[in-house]
Amino acid sequence: MAPDVLPRGRFPDERGGPQFVSMDSVTPRCIPLPGLRVQALEAGPADGPLVLLLHGFPELSESWREVLPRLAKAGFHAVAPDLRGYGGTDRPEQGYDLETLANDVVQLARHLQPERPVYLVGHDWGGLIAFHVAARYPEVVDRLAIVNAPHPAVMVKELWKPAQLVRSWYIFLFQIPYLPERLLSAWGGALVPRMLRRAMVDPSRVPPGRLAEYEANFSRPEAARAALAYYRQMFRHTLTPRGLREARNYPRIRAPLLVIWGEKDIALRKSLTQGLEPYLEQLPTVRYLPEEGHFVPLEAPEKVAPLLVEHFLARRSQEERKARRPTGAEPHGEGPQPPA
Fold first, then answer.
1. Which of 149, 199, 217, 238 lies at a 20 to 30 A Cα distance from 318?
2. Between vectors from CA 203 to CA 197 and to CA 204, what angle results, nearest 5°?
3. How many CB atoms are located within 10 Å of the residue 226 CB?
4. Per-residue model confidence as pLDDT tens digits over 234-248
5. Over the stretch 65-109, which tens digit does the pLDDT of each residue have?
6. From CA 305, how far away is CA 109, in angstroms rounded?
7. What do you get for the CA distance between the two ends of the chain, in Å?
8. CATH homologous superfamily for the domain 27-321
9. Which residues are catalytic?
C-alpha cells in the first residue's frame, strides 16, 4: 500500500549512500513459467520445504532479502519472486487482475514443488494475492502467513468506512490516468524510497542505499504503470456486480493462517485483522508487533522470520506427535489438539 505519495522532509539519498551488500546465502534466479518469466531471490536447500514470499507495493523481492536466509537456516527452500510487472519479471500489457496474479503464484508453486503444497507468505499486495490463492486453490497451500495485508473480502467492506477511507485515499488517486505513473517515475523514482521510509516507525533501521533498487525500478514509467495496474484492475472489478458477488461468497480458506501485523501501520487499520472467521475453516493466529509499521519485512526481518518458522514448523511437530501415537490412541491430558 502507498500511505503517502508526496512525502515531506529529508531522507537519505539512496543512490549516494553506501552500497547495500547482500547476504551470500541469497542468490538470484530466473524461473520460466508458461507465458511469464519470473525473476526471484532464493535461499536454502533445494529439497527443503518450499516457502514462497510475495512482496507488496511499491516494493520488490528485495524486501524479503533479510528474511530469506533466516528461513534457509531453519531448513526451508525460501523463494521471493518479483511479482508480475515488477523488477526483472516480465511486464506484459495485461494480466494484473487478482485471478491472473494468483495463477502466476500457483504456476510458480507447481513448477518449484510439483508434488506437495507450499508454505505461502504475502505482505501488502502479496498478502491479497496469497489470500486469493489459498481460497481458490486450497490444494496448493499447506500453511498461510499474512503480513500487514487485508483479506480481499474484508477490504471491500472496510474500505468505505470513514476511518479506513481516509487512509486509502491514494487508491482513488491511482485511478487517474497518467498522473500517478508520472509522479512515481519522476526524478528517477526518488519518491518511492521516500514513501517507504515515511511509513516506517524508525527509517534508520534500513540503511542508506538499501532502497536503491526500488528507486531504479520505478524510474521507468512502464514499471510504475504496471504496479498501478494492480489497483486499477482491483478497483474496477470490485465495483462490478460480479466483483461484489465474489466478495460476498469468498471460499473459506482451509490452510492454517498466521497474521503478523505491525500496529503502527499508517495505511491499514488494525480492524482489518478482525472479522476473518467467516472466510476461514479454523481460527487464525494473530501476532501483533506494537512498535512496527507497514513495511515490517524491511523494517523488522528479525521479528518476522522467527514467527514464520514457528508457524511452519508447527506442521512438522504435529506430524511427529501423530507418528509417535499408537494406532487408534486418542490424546490424553494434552488439551485440544491444534489443527494440522
1. 149
2. 145
3. 22
4. 998 887 888 888 888
5. 999 999 999 999 999 999 999 999 999 999 999 999 999 999 999
6. 20
7. 32
8. Alpha/Beta hydrolase fold, catalytic domain (3.40.50.1820)
9. 124, 231, 294
